Amino acid sequence: MARATNRSGLPNERSSTVLLILDMVSRFDFPDGEATARAARRIAPHIARLKERIRAAHFQVIYVNDNPGRWRSDAPALLREAAAPDSRGAAVLEALRPAKEDYFILKPRHSAFFATPLATILEALDTRRVILTGVSSHQCVLFTANDAHVRQFELVVPSDCIGAPSATDTRLAISYFRRALGAAVIPQSRWRA
Predict the structure, then answer these.
(1) Where are the alpha helices (DSSP H) in 57-188?
(2) How far apart are CA 36 and CA 29, in angstroms?
(3) Is the previous residue joined to 136 through a cis bond, with omega within 30 degrees of 0?
(4) pLDDT digits (tens, 9 = 90+) for 83-94
(5) CA separation (Å) from 185 to 41, 168, 173?
(6) What does 139-168 look like in DSSP terms, one character per residue?
(7) CATH top-level class for 17-190?
(8) Which of 7, 59, 84, 98 has its CA 20 to 30 A from that of 123?
(9) pLDDT tens digit string along 6-45?
(10) pLDDT tens per residue across span 85-142
């Protein structure tokens, strides 16, 4: 029996809240990669705990990741590369490996919305609240938050689930999330479904 789909052609699922995990699948072999990898390793356990609670509440999880190198749209290759023994991101991936039921989107630029199907997926899921996690707080998380805000999503940014090469970058981003976007910035342990 075929699974029922909505007008977007996606399976009929509903998820008023969606957890976005940004750029946590990586080798972190770019400028500032070592510092970004340290931040990612620090926040990965917090994101993993939040992901467990999101799943227990029957909400969806969407990984959105940079597509390094030449554009191939090859998520399995990205996962293999991030898991390699010489990868700075191997421990991060071990803590946050995407599950079969998770969505996985590759993006060409900073925002998870830019040139990706994310808006279509969120519409199909009837999503109203987006929880943003990942790296880097002052770049990809911030650009995604801006785009979510203009699309009128309620924003939650768990303060212990975002990171950047420097703590100053994260503090500036947190101030912006609160003041300009009206986001709820709280530790992940305080989030309630």
Answers:
(1) 75-83, 90-96, 118-125, 140-150, 167-179
(2) 10
(3) yes
(4) 999 999 999 999
(5) 20, 16, 11
(6) THHHHHHHHHHHTT-EEEEEGGGEE-SSHH
(7) alpha beta
(8) 98
(9) 555 555 589 999 999 999 999 999 999 999 999 999 999 9
(10) 999 999 999 999 999 999 999 999 999 999 999 999 999 999 999 999 999 999 999 9
Backbone angles phi, psi at 32, to 5 degrees: 70, 10
Residue extents of the structural domains in the chain: 17-190
Q: Specify the pTM.
A: 0.93
Q: For helices 140-150 and 167-179, what crossing angle results, to 10°?
A: 10
Q: In degrees, to the nearest 5, what angle opens at C-alpha 150 toward C-alphas 145 and 154?
A: 60
- How far is residue 92 from each of residues 24, 41, 85, 130, measured CA to CA in Å? 7, 5, 12, 22
Q: How far apart are CA 171 and CA 178, in angstroms?
A: 11
Count of CB atoms situated within 10 Å of the CB of 34: 12
Q: Give the DSSP letter of residue 8.
A: T
> Rounded to an integer, what distance in angstroms lies between the CA atom of residue 5 and that of residue 20?
23
